[in-house]
Design brief:
Elements (H helix, E strand, L loop, with lengths): L20 E9 L8 H8 L8 H19 L6 E7 L10 E4 L13 E9 L7 E3 L5 E4 L4 E4 L14 E7 L8 H16 L7 H4 L3 H7 L8
Antiparallel strand pairs: 1-2, 2-8, 3-7, 4-5, 4-8, 6-7
Length: 222
């Protein structure tokens, strides 16, 4: 029975997560590449000819970009993830389907998601992490999941989360849409003009104009 049907019984435990993964870690992220240029930022802030704040503005640019990535669940530049999946009865010798929690759309023929490796902990004492050959699995872009053509009998049934997928979400083409960049400039302006934490309820949430611009690109959670 495939892993993604665990709600019908094969899982050893119970979970409110409707997907098959148990834990996700962000292990790498592009924090070097500029998304909004310094020229765009200084034009937005009317800082013509003033270079005294350039370093501060670039720090704000990074904070703005990461906030919008997290708000939209969209990769502006690459992000690398490690995802863990629990053990279940009958997981060896049968097809296993592993949901990916974060995805990116295809960009002009460049795959939005790159599977770096799929591995599992064996039943040794202590367990060893074994990397599967690339011929043992494939990525299903229609379901945002990795399909593994069966795990070896040596896969651990004792480890809490014995299956591990490491993958990279590549830059989304939506990141270059003018409306999303304009939202970035509005948010950066908000951060620039409000340099301390606030208890003002009107300022605690993402600014209205930013949210309105980004709303069409925010995935629905059902």
């Amino acid at each position: 029975m495939p892993l993604d049907s665990y709600t019908t019984g094969p899982y050893l435990g119970t979970s409110r997560n409707p997907y098959s993964y148990e834990k996700i870690e962000q292990i790498d992220r592009d924090i070097q590449t500029e998304w909004l240029t310094l020229e765009q930022i200084t034009d937005q802030l009317n800082l013509f000819g003033d270079t005294s704040q350039d370093a501060y503005l670039l720090n704000l640019e990074l904070a703005t970009r990461m906030a919008i990535e997290d708000f939209l669940g969209m990769t502006i530049f690459y992000t690398k993830w490690k995802v863990y999946y629990g053990s279940y009865v009958g997981m060896t010798g049968t097809q296993v389907m592993l949901d990916l929690p974060e995805v990116s759309i295809d960009n002009l023929g460049q795959a939005g998601v790159v599977i770096n490796n799929v591995s599992y902990y064996d039943s040794g004492n202590p367990p060893a992490l074994i990397v599967l050959p690339t011929t043992a699995y494939y990525y299903d872009p229609t379901g945002n999941k990795v399909v593994v053509n069966g795990l070896p009998d040596s896969a651990s049934l004792i480890m809490t989360n014995p299956i591990v997928v490491t993958y990279t979400t590549n830059a989304s083409p939506l990141a270059q849409y003018p409306v999303i960049k304009q939202a970035g400039l509005l948010l950066l302006t908000h951060l620039y003009n409000n340099r301390s934490n606030t208890t003002n309820t009107k300022m605690m949430e993402i600014p209205y104009g930013v949210a309105q611009l980004l709303r069409p690109y925010k995935p629905l959670v059902l």
